[in-house]
């Protein structure tokens, strides 16, 4: 049976996923708790990636080497960069780039040395399934979040986007920094701190990877406001609903 790996960067999101997994067993590797169990009839391993590229790469490597997952999905939050990518929207990665990789002039900016590429593509089929699941969840956002939360965060008609996600070891929280990112990588829809590292590890192993990120902020001067409450009340509910919907509809393998 295919084993699905699920990685989240934040505690609240992982807790929401684990709440749906009956009888999961904890296996500790590299100081991390890997939760092995079942969800919607699939064998699932769920883990907290921790924050940042190195922590996420280590976690992904253990997922692949020790638990032999057949596909890896990252769920988390991100800062919106692209025009029209608003708080409460969901971005499904079509590909990922490390925005802080720069070995120029030896290699073009953003290219990962010795890989001959900056972009690590997400698995197209997996990403299409997740985008469809996200679409369905967002269509009934009020049902998932409740009208009060919707109003508090001013989430009117949240949207699903598919495109470039960029990752780096910085919480982007100034207008100047987010503008510089948009200039350097004009196609970027969202910025976070783990995805491109996990995509690179999955590329090394030839294992399909996908990333789903709820937009928690606009990576600007207001990026820290209400961050934790947003994760608790919006992002973790979306993550659980989107992944659950995806697994329930996923074609059997
Ligand atoms: N307040 C949190 C820390 C969050 S760090 C805590 O106390 O644990 C930010 C996390 O959200 C990272 O996992 C990153 O991937 C994502 N993220 C959300 N908005 C971001 C932004 N504007 N820039 C970079 N990463 C962001």
From TrEMBL:
GO MF assignments: adenosylhomocysteine nucleosidase activity; methylthioadenosine nucleosidase activity
Enzyme class: hydrolase
InterPro entries (alphabetical): MTA_SAH_Nsdase (IPR010049), Nucleoside_phosphorylase_d (IPR000845), Nucleoside_phosphorylase_sf (IPR035994)
Key word Protein transport present: no
One Pfam family here: PNP_UDP_1
Pathway participation: Amino-acid biosynthesis; L-methionine biosynthesis via salvage pathway; S-methyl-5-thio-alpha-D-ribose 1-phosphate from S-methyl-5'-thioadenosine (hydrolase route): step 1/2
Gene3D superfamilies associated with the record: Nucleoside phosphorylase domain
One Gene Ontology cellular component: cytosol
E.C. numbers: 3.2.2.9
Keywords per UniProt: Amino-acid biosynthesis, Hydrolase, Methionine biosynthesis
Ranges where the Nucleoside phosphorylase domain occurs: 4-242
GO biological process, one term: L-methionine salvage from methylthioadenosine
Name of the protein this chain belongs to: adenosylhomocysteine nucleosidase
Provenance organism: Limnohabitans planktonicus II-D5
């Amino acid at each position: 049976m295919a084993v699905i790996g699920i990685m989240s960067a934040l505690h609240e999101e992982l807790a929401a996923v684990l709440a749906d997994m009956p009888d999961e067993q904890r296996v500790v590797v590299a100081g991390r708790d890997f939760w092995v169990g079942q969800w919607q009839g699939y064998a699932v391993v769920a883990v907290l990636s921790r924050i940042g590229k190195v922590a996420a790469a280590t976690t992904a490597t253990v997922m692949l080497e020790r638990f032999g997952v057949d596909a890896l999905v990252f769920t988390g939050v991100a800062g919106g960069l692209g025009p029209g990518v608003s708080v409460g929207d969901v971005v499904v990665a079509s590909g990922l780039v490390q925005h802080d990789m720069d070995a120029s002039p030896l290699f073009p900016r953003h290219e990962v040395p010795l890989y001959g590429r900056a972009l690590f593509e997400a698995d197209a089929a997996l990403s299409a399934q997740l985008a469809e699941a996200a679409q369905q969840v967002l269509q009934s956002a009020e049902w998932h979040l409740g009208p009060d939360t919707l109003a508090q965060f001013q989430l009117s008609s949240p949207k699903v986007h598919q495109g470039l996600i960029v990752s780096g070891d910085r919480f982007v929280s100034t207008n100047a920094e987010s503008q510089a990112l948009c200039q350097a990588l004009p196609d970027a829809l969202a910025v976070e701190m783990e995805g491109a590292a996990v995509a690179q590890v999955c590329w090394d192993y030839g294992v399909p990877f996908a990333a789903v990120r709820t937009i928690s902020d606009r990576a600007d001067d207001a990026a820290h406001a209400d961050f934790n409450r947003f994760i608790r009340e919006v992002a973790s509910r979306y993550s659980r609903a989107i992944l659950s919907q995806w697994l329930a509809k996923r074609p059997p393998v």
